[in-house]
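Kindly go through the following sequence and its backbone structure tokens. Advise at your convenience whether the structure tokens fit the sequence:

___
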Amino acid sequence: MAADRPLVSNRVWTIPNVLSFLRLLGVPFFLALILLEHDVAAVVLLALASLTDLLDGRIARRFNQVSKLGEMLDPAADRLYIFATVLGLAVRGIIPWWLLVVLVGRDVTMAALLPALKSRGFASLPVNFIGKAATFCLLYALPLILLGAGPWVISPAASIIGWAFAIWGAFLYWWAGLMYIWQTQQILRSVPPVKTRAS
């Protein structure tokens, strides 16, 4: 299995990382579009961001440009887009605030694991399949819910499909989170603390 894992470098300026940086720069513009009720433009921007997400992963694997920075930027960008979407939709009253609490609460829980992981020499945990499925569901659900709140012909169907994806995605999001908690516990039990260098 180790042979199947691509070589991870410490490079910063790679094509996938530049795409991830651009995706991160789009987050505040995306949130502004939602709050200003430019819904179609917001969905188009999210679609472009999703396209760069697809491209950077394929480019990284195809041209051996997988990097530690990229492994951090990619999920961070996904989480920020999810957060920006649920925040904007909650402020506009399109979704209930409890959904924001559920999704952000999971990310806060994951952030709380970082000190324990760093004490064992881990910067993060690899994204698992359920986590990827959860992100996929949420990144499709939220723009569909946004379109579902509009006056268009597709709005009723978009709302139903969007909420189905949202509920399933939230469930998977926490399922993946519980798996990360379990992995962290296993690491704490089996890996000794990293020794700090003497000053």
Observations:
- The CA atoms of residues 112 and 178 lie 13 Å apart.
